Amino acid sequence: MTQYESLKELIMLDANEEAKFSEKQLKIIEAAIEIFSEKGFAATSTNEIAKKAGVAEGTIFRHYKTKKELLVSIVSPLMAKLLGPHFAKDFANEVFELKYETFEEFIRNLASNRYEFIKKHIAVVKILIQEISYHKELKEPYVRLFKEHVYEKFKNIILHFQKKGEIVDESPDTIMRLIITTIMGTLVSLFLVLPDNEWDTESELESTIQFLINGLSVK
After folding, report:
1. How far is CA 102 from CA 64, 106, 121, 208, in A?
2. Distance between CA 127 and CA 37 in Å, rounded?
């Protein structure tokens, strides 16, 4: 599936949003995401986006006064309104609504789910990682979505396995942080930091899973 097809698929998750985007607008969005992900927001010009999209630069400025407004008004809403809820709600349903026999089973499903998500939406995830510290408009929706759809369910799973005596009696927030940073650190390395390395993805994920299980299990 191309990035363009992936974007159209995301937009079709919400019929009301789909009606607001013309084919030309979709091409601008696709071009913006592709170039922002490759070069970063600061190093990208609206002229490059226009050329990539096959439109005149004036077409962009007819709707958006600045490059920042393009990021905030097109890319950010697309991610926050479509990819964001899709991420949070599906993430909650596919990972946190299931019943697990063991902590290892939970960690395996969590790592696999996030791997498949990032693999499918790598360009958009790359923009988030690059720009989230500089643009609060990108950060705030995801913090809210995590708190609304994921946090309590994640915490309850940790408490469940602590009561079963499977994992250490540390603060659930601390354990949550360790799980998130370990899995995301591995995935960022595989896809973004060292993407040209000849990674054995299955082996790297298994090492990450074993690291968490061995580090958090009650000895």
Report:
1. 51, 7, 29, 17
2. 5
List the single range of 25-29, 32-36, 208-212 with lowest mean pLDDT: 25-29
Three-state DSSP state, 32: helix
Q: Name the residue range of residue 123's domain.
A: 3-216
The CATH number linked to 204 is 1.10.357.10
Q: How far apart are CA 16 and CA 110, in angstroms?
A: 31
Q: What is the pLDDT of residue 68?
A: 78
Cα-flanking dihedrals φ and ψ of residue 134, to 5°?
A: -100, -20
CB-CB contact of 33 with 126 (8 Å): no
Per-residue confidence band for 41, with pLDDT thresholds at 50, 70 and 90: confident
DSSP state letters, 52-120: HHTS-HHHHHTT-SSHHHHIIIIIHHIIIIIIHHHHHHHHIIIIISS--SSHHHHHHHHHHHHHHHHHH
> Tokens 């603060």 appear where?
171
Q: Which helix (H) or strand (E) holds 159?
A: helix 151-163
Residues 6+ apart with CB under 8 A from 100: 106, 109, 157
Domain count, the chain: 1
Q: Which long-range contacts (CB under 8 A, 24 or more apart) does 201-206 make?
A: 201/115, 205/111, 205/112, 205/115
Model confidence at 6, pLDDT cuts 50, 70, 90, reads low
**Per-residue pLDDT, 86:** 65
Q: Which of 164, 165, 185, 162 is CA-nearest to residue 174?
A: 162
